[in-house]
Amino acid sequence: MSYLVHNLKTVPVGLRKVLHLNWPLFLLVTAVACFGFLMLYSVAGGSFDPWAAAQAKRFGVGMVLMLVVAFIPIYFWRNVAGLAYAVSLFLLIGVALFGEVGMGAQRWIDLGFMRLQPSELMKIALVMALAAYYDWLDISKVSKPLWVGLPLLMIAVPMLLVLKQPDLGTALLLGLGGTAILWLAGVHWGYFAAATLSVVGLISAVLFSRGTSWQLLKNYQYRRIDTFLDPASDPLGAGYHITQSKIALGSGGWSGRGFMQGTQSRLNFLPEKQTDFIFTTLAEELGFIGGISLLFLYALIVLFCVISALNNRDRFGALLTLGIATTFFLFFAVNMSMVMGLAPVVGVPLPLVSYGGTAMLVLMLAFGLVQSAHIHRPK
Amino acid sequence: MSLNNRHNEPAAKRLTRRGLILFGAQVGFMGLLGLRLRFLQVDQADEFRLLAEENRINIHLLPPARGLIFDRNGVPLAENAQNYRIVMVREQAGDVTTILDRLGRIIPLSDDDRATALKNLKRRSGFVPITVAEHLSWEQLAAVSANAPALPGVTAEVGLTRHYPLAEDFTHIVGYVGRVTDYDLNRIEDPDPLLQIPKFQIGKSGVELKIERRLRGFAGTKRIEVNSVGRVMREIDRKEGQSGAKVELTVDHRLQNYVQARLAGQSASAVVMDVKSGDLMAIGSAPSFDPNKFVTGISTTEFDELMADPFSPFANKATQGTYPPGSTFKMMVALAALKEGVITADEEVTCRGHMELGNQRFHCWKRAGHGRVNLRDSLKQSCDVYYYELAQRIGIEKIAEMARQFGLGDRLALPLNGIAAGLMPTKAWKKRIYGEQWRIGDTLNASIGQGYVLTSPLQLATMVARLATGRAVVPKLLKSVDGVNTFVPPPEALDIPAPVLAAIRDGMFAVSNERHGTGYSTRVAEKSMRMAGKSGTSQVRRITTAERKAGVTSNADLPWERRDHALFVAYAPFDAPRFAVAVIVEHGGGGSRFAAPIVRDIMLEALYGGKPPPSAYPASQRTRISNERKKLILRDPQT
C-alpha cells in the first residue's frame, strides 16, 4: 500500500482540489452544454419550455454530481468499478424483464422520481470495469487468450442485452468503447485483425440471414440499413428521417438561417428534433460555422482528456480517461454520421446537447471520473 | 495487484503509443465529419435550400370574385350568390359514418355524395376539411347548425357561386359558367393557375365565355407555412386578388324578358337593335333553358332532354342560326339596281306569275301574277318576278357588293360564341366551293333570298338599321366594362345616294302601312310609331313535283322540319327611326302571317318601353292582342 500512501501525499486534499480541477475541460463541457440549451430553446420556438429549462436543471444537477465524483479519490472508483458493472448488468437484466416499453424499445426502469436507462449507466460502468481489470492484470498476461476472453465476455453480455431491447446505437457504443480499452491496454494487434475479419463476417451473416428463419435483426433494422444505403428510394417512408435531416442541414448554408430562424426543424419536418436530430437544427440555424464550431469543441474535449491521460502515470486513471474520451467521441461521431447520412439511423444522442436526463447525468458522471483521475493523478 | 505493473515502463509507453494512434484515428474521423458538413452545407447548400423552401411553404390561391354582369339599366344578370356548403373534418368527427348518417337525416345526401365524401375523408389527412354537401338552402344550413352538438367536426361554410337571377331569359347572351375540364385546359392557352383549382368555374358560353379573362379577375395568393404533414402553422403573407370586371350589357332586361316570352313555344329568334347606336336591346332565342342548372350540375336526364329537343335549345339562333333571308333580301337587290341605274323607281315590270329562263320556269309566289309593278309595289307585295328581272340586269356581283355593305355575309364582331358569318355567294365563291360555273338561275334564286344566300337574324337587324339610317351601324352588346364605356366610332355613311335609300324606305313603309302590303295586317295604328318592314318566307326546300301531284300544296301539309321559315324585318318609327327588329320563326310558315305580328309586338314594346297602349294597334285587333298578351308569362306582368 506504500504506493497509495505516497500517492495520497502528492495529491491535493480538501477544497484545494478545486484548484487542481482540469479547468479547460470543465469550461469546454459547460460551453457545449450551453450550445445545447440554446438549441433546445430555439427548437421549442423560442421558449424555455418544455426542454431548455429542464435540460439546464439537469445540467446543474450533473455539475454537482461531477464535482462530487471528481473530489472522491480515484482509487475509490477503481475499487467500486466491479460493483458498478455488476449493478448495471443487474439493472439491464431487470429492464429486459420488467422494463417499460417506450418508442418501440424496452430501455427504461421507472424509479418513481426518474426514468433510469441502465444502458447509459453501462456505457460508463463497462469502461470503469475494463480499466480496473487491466489495471489489475499483469502486463505480461494481457495478450493471453484466457485473459482476453474475460474482458470480451464483459463486453459481449451487456452488448447482447442492449441489442435485445433493441438499441443498436448503444450496443455499438458499448462494443466499440470496450474494444478501445482492449486496444489501449496493449492486447496484441492480431486479435483486432481477427475481430475486424469476424465483424465483416458477422455483417455478411446479418445481411444474408435476411428473410430466412434465423434472421438476426428485426425487419425495421433492415429497413433502416436499406434506407441508409439509398435514402431517396422512399423519401416519405423509411428514408424520411435521413432525407429531411440532410435538407435541414444543407439549407443552413455557410452561416445558417440565423438563431431561431430554422424552418425545417421547428415545423416538424425533422423527427426527434430535440433529441437525436438536434444537430440538424443547430446546423440549419447556425450554418457550417456553427456546426464546425461544435465539432471543434468536441475535439478539444477529447484532446484535453487525451493530454490528461497521457500525463497520468496511474494506469487505471489513464485507461479510464481515454476510455471515457473514446466513448464520448463515439457518441458524437455516430450521431453526426447519422444525421449527415454517413451511418444508419441508430438512435444515439448528441452528447451534452440532446435533450435527455440519463444521458446528461451519465456523461457528467463520466467527466467527474475524468476530473477525479486528473486531480488525483500521481505527479 | 502488483505495484510493478504500474511502473512498467514498456506498458506505459505502449499505452501512450496506442492512445495516440486511437486519438489520431478519432481526429481523422472528425476531419471526415467536418468535410461532410462542408459538402452538405457549403457545396450543396443551394440545392438543399430550395428543397427546404418546397418543404415549408405552400401557396394557396385566393380565387377572385367573378365580375358581375348587368343589363343597360343596372339590373344584375349574373351575380355571385352565396353557396352554403357543409364541410367535415375527420379528426374532429371521429366516427365518420355515423355522423354522415345523422347528416343524411337533416339534409338530402345522395348515395353518390355520401360515397364521394367518405372516399375523400378517408384519403385526405384528418385535418383537411372535406366538402360533404353544397348548394344548400339557408333553411337546410340552419337545420344543420341547430343539430351541431350531435355533429362534431361538421361545419357550415359560405363560398361564392355564379347565379343568374333572370334564368332562361339571358342564357343565350350571358351564357353560363362551369367547372374547368381537361378539354378546356387543352384548348385554351392560359397559364392562369386559378384554372387548376378544383371546382373553379370559367365561362362556357356567351359573354361569360367571350370576356372570360376580364370577368375572372386575378387570383390573390396566401402563403402559408405548413409542417411535415401539411397542417397549417401560420399564414406568412396574403396578397389580395383583383375581382373581375363589372360588365354592363346594352340589353334591356325587361324587353329581353318580353321577347323570350313572346317567342316561347316556337323555335324562333329575334333581334332588337338601336338603329343609331347599334345597341342590341334584346337578343331572343327560343326555346331556352335555365343556365343555373349548369352551374350547380345538371342531371343526365335533363341534359339528354335538352339535347334531344328538335327545337335545339342550346343554339342562340339569333346569332348562330343562318337562314335563307327570303324576300327580306329584296331591298339589297333593289338598292343595287337603283344605284347602278339599271332601273328607276318608277319603271314597271310585268309579272305574269312566273318568268321563263332558258328551259327553266321561275315562279312568283303569286301564281296569278302581280301585273305591272314598280319598285314600290314590288316591295309592298313582294313580287318575285320584278327581282328576277333586276337580277338579270345587274348580276350577282353587284348584289353581293351591296349586301356586304349591309353586313350580310360578314361575321359581325360581338362577344358571343359561334357568331355566324352567313353566306353571300359570288361567282368566285361557287367556283371555289363547287367547282362549277355560276349560272344565271343562281342569280335569280339569290335575288329573292333563296339559293345559296344565308343570313342570321342579327345580320338582318343590322341590315335594317343601316337601311333606316343610311350609316354603317355596328351592333354592340357591351355597354361598359369596368365602368369604361365601350367606344364605338360614329358609323360612316353608306355609299348610296339619298333618293335611292328613300325609295327603298318608301317601299318598306308601303309594306307595313298600305292596303295589299304584306305587312298591312300587322300595321301600327299610332301614326308616330308606324313601322317600315319587309316580310320573307324562305323555303327550306322546294315542294317537289311528286308532292305537288300527291296534293301537297301548302306548308301546313308538310312535316314541321320541312316547312318554310317565317321572317319579318322592320324599323320604327318610320319618320324618326329608333329600333330595328328582325324575327325568324323556324319552319313557321309565311313571314307576314307568322313573323310580322311578333315583330310588331316586340317593336311596340321597345318603343313604348313597356306595355303599349291598345291604341297602338288597329281597332279591330285590340281585343285579340290584349288577350294574347295576357297569356304571356312575363317576369313582371304589370309592365
What does this structure look like?
The complex is a heterodimer of chains A (379) and B (639). Chain A is mainly α and 379 residues long. Chain A has one domain (2-375). Chain A has helices at 2-10, 23-43, 52-71, 74-98, 118-136, 145-164, 168-185, 189-208, 219-229, 240-252, 278-310, 315-339, 357-375; strands at 100-102, 105-110, 115-116. The radius of gyration of chain A is 21 Å and the shape is globular. Chain A starts with a helix and ends with a helix. In chain B, strands 2, 3, 4, 5, 10, 17 and 18 form a seven-stranded mixed beta sheet that branches. In chain B, strands 12-11-21-20-19 form a five-stranded antiparallel beta sheet, with helices on both faces. The radius of gyration of chain B is 37 Å and the shape is elongated. In chain B, 40% of the residues lie in helices and 19% in strands. The model of chain B is unreliable at 1-7 (pLDDT under 50). Chain B folds into three domains: 53-75 and 166-249, Penicillin-binding protein 2a (Domain 2) (Alpha-Beta Complex), CATH 3.90.1310.10; 82-160, Penicillin-binding protein 2a (Domain 2); 253-301 and 315-631, DD-peptidase/beta-lactamase superfamily (Beta-lactamase), CATH 3.40.710. By secondary structure, chain B is an alpha+beta fold. In chain B, strand 20 and strand 21 form a beta hairpin. The interface between A and B is large, with 55 and 46 residues.
